[in-house]
Amino acid sequence: MADMQDYKQSLKYETFSYLPPMSSEQIRAQIKYAIAQGWNPGIEHVEPENSMQHYWYMWKLPFFGEQSVDAVLAELESCRRAYPTHQIKLVAYDNYAQSQGMAFVVYRGG
User: How do residues 43-57 score in pLDDT, each as one tens digit?
Assistant: First the structure.
């Protein structure tokens, strides 16, 4: 019963937060999938205490037309070095649907 209480009290961010943390290979695969869909990757970050707000800070502009998974991973690492205590998430924007195709927290910070 105590495990259930801990689960209910922990914060959840986006869909993948209900799964175990992703490995580097799984994160790479998600970015590759987003690029293959024609979605534009973007990076957002925020202080952990403000992570439940609707608006996170944008790290640069979305990477319109980016085809390199390594370039996106490098930007994620740059954001992490600049804001080591922040929550950092990848967002993939779908131009056709004019919405987010996917979003998930890559680094939990703290």
Answer: 999 998 888 877 899
Burial label for 36, CB within 10 Å (0-12, 13-18, 19+), is exposed
pTM of structure: 0.84
* Radius of gyration in angstroms for the set of CA atoms belonging to the chain, rounded to a whole number: 14
Contacts of 6 (CB under 8 A, 6+ apart): none
CA distance 58 to 42: 8
Q: How far is CA 104 from CA 1, 3, 16, 90, 92, in A?
A: 28, 24, 6, 6, 9
Helix 69-82 × helix 24-36 angle, to 10°: 120
Report residue 59's pLDDT band, with 50, 70 and 90 as the boundaries.
very high
Among the listed residues 35, 108, 107, the one whose alpha carbon sits nearest the alpha carbon of residue 71: 35
Query: What's the token pair of residue 43?
Result: 């990076």
Residue 21 CB contacts under 8 Å (≥ 6 apart), including other chains: none
